[in-house]
Amino acid sequence: MNILSIDIGGTKFQVAVVTKDGEIVRSQKVPTPKSYDGEELFAVLCSAIAEVSSKESYDVVGVGCGGPMSPMGEFVSPLNIPGWRNFPLRSRLESIAGLPVFIDNDAKAITLAEAFFGGGKGKRNFMAMVVSTGVGAGLYCDGRLIDGESGNAGHLGHVIVEPSGHLCACGSLGCLEAEISGLSTQKILGITADLAPKSWIIRSGDLLARAVASAAALLDFECVFVGGSVALGYGDLFFEEANRALKRYAKLEFSEKVEILPTTLGPDFASLSGAAVALYRKGINSLT
């Protein structure tokens, strides 16, 4: 079975044909247009899909997209893509593909990719995060993905880590996303995250640990996998500081054992995430 895997982020659209075993057959990446025209955005996505599917066939479509969104991704409103507000993504994709389309939050999709293809394979309880243009997470508990009432469980980027902090795109103050995301870093420092000074990287690791400690106390998971261009770009210093800080904040016997680890999916994690959504929603168990 081949899967058309789509990752929709504030910086790029990534489209790939992926096998059920996680082999990437063909992929295409295009910048996300800085447009408020939803149809223009969709046209760019369709062009990338056409480029990839012109040479490879597929049987199902899986999508990871920034949130929030309505259940099953019928309507999406990614905070970092203002041109899509209640955009009917699932039905529009289904109309061009003529096949079943499964959509989930991008961080939840990456969580499923860890479960099927990465370090989460065989684990029953873990969290996965992305720190990139935005910040999000997915929760894998007791061998299943946690969806929540509306399908939006896992928005760790909107946990308050600085009560008097910066204004977030969601309207609140001091959200993790408003303090450490790539977009926020550029707004606060006036430079891109790849140029951030050591002190900022250390601060970001500390704030991430605050959010993780709270989640670990609530959910009792084993570890956290973190991906995304900002976190991975910061490298060892970020992960070392995050784990040092986590030891200060997570003091319960079960939560003090949690580790914050870089994703094991490598640079292709975005291509694998949509594929994992399709596999999971079709009822395939990552633990078997």
TrEMBL record:
Keywords annotated in UniProt: Kinase, Transferase
Highest taxon of the lineage: Bacteria
Keyword Transferase: yes
Signal sequence, renumbered to the chain: none
GO MF terms held by the record: kinase activity
Pfam families: ROK
SUPFAM superfamilies per record: Actin-like ATPase domain (SSF53067)
Similarity comment: family membership: Belongs to the ROK (NagC/XylR) family.
PANTHER family: N-ACETYLMANNOSAMINE KINASE (PTHR18964:SF169), ROK (REPRESSOR, ORF, KINASE) FAMILY (PTHR18964)
Protein's name in the database: Glucokinase
